[in-house]
Amino acid sequence: QVQLVESGGGLVQPGGSLRLSCAASGSISRINVMGWYRQAPGKERELVAFITSGGSTNYADSVKGRFTISRDNAKIAVYLQMNSLKYEDTAVYYCHLDHQWYPREYWGQGTQVTVSS
Predict the structure, then answer these.
(1) 95: closest CA among 107, 77, 111, 82?
(2) Are 85 and 16 in contact (CB under 8 A)?
């Protein structure tokens, strides 16, 4: 069984920064993709960014230039550095893992990010 444990959410003013962390444990294939999704009230869950085990990254247009995703393969951890936060970044952020073994996908429990003055 795989577990994803997130940390780092909280309340921040517009223009501020937060860093989210997600640590994975369990039987995980070496080749995998880890990422972050978010869900705002009344909206569908959306991709924020992902990073492959090889280091390739992809970002939603809304966060390009402000968010940076990174990972530590030895720790099987993924991070999301969020800068220049905006009101519209307020959401529950979920860590996601997609790997080669069944079950293919796992989700973290979610961490709240609130951008407010």
Answers:
(1) 107
(2) yes
* Assigned token pair, 8: 């780092």
Alpha-carbon torsion (112, 61, 63, 58), positive or negative: positive
One-letter amino acid identity for 51? I
Measuring CA to CA, which residue among 112, 103, 77 is closest to residue 4?
77
pLDDT, one tens digit per residue, over 85-102 is 999 999 999 999 999 888
> Are residues 70 and 78 in contact, defined by beta-carbon separation less than 8 angstroms?
yes
Using the 8-state DSSP alphabet, how is residue 30 labeled?
A: S
For residues 10, 11, 13 and 19, what is the CA-based torsion angle, rounded to 10 degrees? 0
Torsion of CA 56, 59, 61, 64, to 10 degrees: -90
pLDDT band per the 50, 70, 90 thresholds, residue 15: very high
Q: Is the peptide bond before 103 cis (omega within 30 degrees of 0)?
A: yes
